[in-house]
Design brief:
Elements lengths: L2 E14 L6 E14 L3 E5 L6 H8 L7 E6 L2 E2 L5 H8 L2 E5 L12 H11 L5 H14 L16 H13 L5 E5 L7 H18 L2 E5 L3 H7 L2 E6 L2 E7 H6 L4 H9 L4
Parallel strand pairs: 3-8, 3-9, 6-7, 7-8
Antiparallel strand pairs: 1-2, 1-4, 4-5, 9-10
Helix pairs in contact: 3-4, 3-5, 5-6
The protein binds adenosine-5'-triphosphate and magnesium ion.
Length: 258
């Protein structure tokens, strides 16, 4: 299988304020993991275990203190400026609160065209066509193209965010707690949609959640983090069936089922 993301010995130290002596917090400590084409790699661990930091490192939003971040054969931790921007198109992030950042004055049509406009891609007719295709893909009706964000439900707004992340045809998606802000009844439909899009597009995905049931549903492989370190990593089915570490067993025991 082709490797899309390859993190090797990644460490991230945040420098904390301090007048005389700078303190450091090691958010990620010597983590290695890979994500193949058409593969979902789940990250689990309690709050503060370094999941989001690792996800942001994976798509070049923050640089690691040590280690390498290889995406499609290029070490993105060495890229700058225009090169990094072009590479970022291949990597998109979906956040828990993505939908809060939708411009409240833009219609669904505008919101779905915007990523293409910003990149100066295609003519207007083609952007319009692509926006409609994206709406279809996330199961939002064509009748709603002139609606504003507040006219959609939370689940529908998260679908808009997913569609925007797909607009530039990324190869790698980092989804950081993408359904955690939604009602439980809506979570399953959005997860089903995300999973079928991932399979259809053969996307590689890093999927972050504190909810073990959600990670089990989405992931082919899983890495369990504690205090920035890997507790265990491997095939998701095997780890969920028979976790080798006491910490993973604790997470599983605390998990509500979806
Ligand atoms: N910009 C920052 N500056 C300083 N410390 C940070 C920064 N971002 C994260 N941290 C620290 O790094 C550690 C890991 O944080 P991170 O957000 O990656 O955890 P997480 O697993 O995503 O947690 P959660 O489940 O709550 O989202 C925490 O101790 C956090 O306080
Ligand atoms: Mg987080």
């Amino acid at each position: 299988m082709e490797t899309v993301l390859d993190l090797q010995s990644v460490t991230k130290d945040f420098v904390l304020g301090g007048v005389f002596k700078k303190a450091h917090r090691r958010a990620v400590d010597n983590v290695s993991l890979t994500v193949g084409r058409n593969e979902v790699h789940g990250l689990v661990g309690e709050s503060g275990s370094g999941k989001s930091t690792l996800g942001r490192i994976a798509i070049g939003l923050i640089r690691p203190t040590k280690g390498s971040v290889n995406v499609l054969g290029t070490d993105i931790s060495t890229l700058k400026g225009k090169e990094l921007r072009e590479y970022r198109r291949k990597m998109q992030m979906i956040f828990q609160d993505s939908s809060n950042s939708l411009n409240p004055r833009m219609t669904l049509q505008d919101l779905l065209e915007e990523p293409l406009k910003v990149q100066g891609l295609y003519d207007q007719a083609e952007r319009t066509r692509r926006a409609k295709a994206l709406a279809d893909e996330v199961e939002l009706s064509q009748k709603w193209m002139r609606r504003l964000p507040h006219e959609f439900s939370g689940g529908q707004r998260q679908r808009i965010s997913i569609a925007r992340a797909l607009a530039l045809e990324p190869e790698l998606i980092v989804a950081d707690e993408p359904v955690s802000a939604l009602d439980v009844s809506v979570q399953a439909t959005v997860l089903n949609l995300l999973k079928s899009i991932q399979e259809e597009r053969h996307l590689s995905m890093v999927f972050v959640s504190h909810d073990m049931a959600v990670v089990e549903f989405m992931s082919d492989r899983v890495t369990v983090l504690l205090d920035g370190r890997v507790v265990e990593s491997g095939n998701a089915k095997e780890i969920f069936a028979s976790p080798s570490s006491a910490y993973t067993r604790t997470l599983l025991a605390a998990a509500p089922s979806l």
